[in-house]
Amino acid sequence: MNNKLFGIAAIIASVGFLISSIAESFAYPQGPNVSLGSNPIVTISCSGHSNFPNVYQVPSGMDFIITDFHIGEGSSSNGWIRVSSNSSMNNSDAVLRHYLQQATSTALSLRSGIKVTENLYLDCVGGSGGSFMSGYLAQM
Predict the structure, then answer these.
(1) Structure pTM?
(2) Could you tell me if 133 and 68 are in contact, meaning their C-beta atoms sit under 8 angstroms apart?
(3) What is the strand order of the sheet 78-84 is part of?
(4) What's the distance, Cα to Cα, between the start and end of the chain in Å?
(5) Residue 34 CB: number of other CB atoms within 10 A?
(6) pLDDT for the residue numbered 53
(7) In Å, what is the CA distance from 58 to each residue of 9, 87, 102, 124?
(8) Mind listing the pLDDT tens digit for each residue in 24-79?
(9) Beta-bridge partners for 68
């Protein structure tokens, strides 16, 4: 009789513990997560490719964090990222220049990224063979 009571008490205690343990559980970490869409990823094509816009305006209330810069093979022997307060860009707007040896393709990945604030325009210039810059949008 004592064994049966002990077994029933153990089952009741297990069910009670199970119910109390699932009250506040989360499958994903709370806060901003790029993979969940709260910080969307943006890719900007360089050298005026027709498939993607080559001048991008950072949306209001957001910061754009540049994390990657890839320069493909082509006729250009250097590449740069330009930032300006208007959509017409010139070479004096360059904030990052990355020079290449004989136009070979290269990639630059940044651990902390380069922050570009809201409403600014940015573009990139590089070789014509698949050059792009990418990063993510973060709420201010």
Answers:
(1) 0.64
(2) yes
(3) 56-57, 121-125, 78-84, 94-99
(4) 66
(5) 15
(6) 55
(7) 61, 11, 32, 14
(8) 655 555 555 565 567 788 888 876 555 555 788 999 999 999 888 887 766 555 67
(9) 109, 134
**Residues 135, 66 contacting (CB under 8 angstroms):** yes
Between CA 83 and CA 88, with CA 85 as vertex, the angle to 5 degrees is 75
106 vs 16: CA distance, rounded Å: 58
DSSP 52: S
DSSP track, 83-131: EESSS---GGGEEEEEE-STT--EEEEEEEEEEE-TT-EEEEE--TBT-
Q: Which two tokens stand for residue 121?
A: 């325009």
SS3 36: helix
Name, in order, each residue with C-beta under 8 angstroms of 12's C-beta and a sequence gap of 6 or more. none
CB 113 within 8 A of CB 65: yes
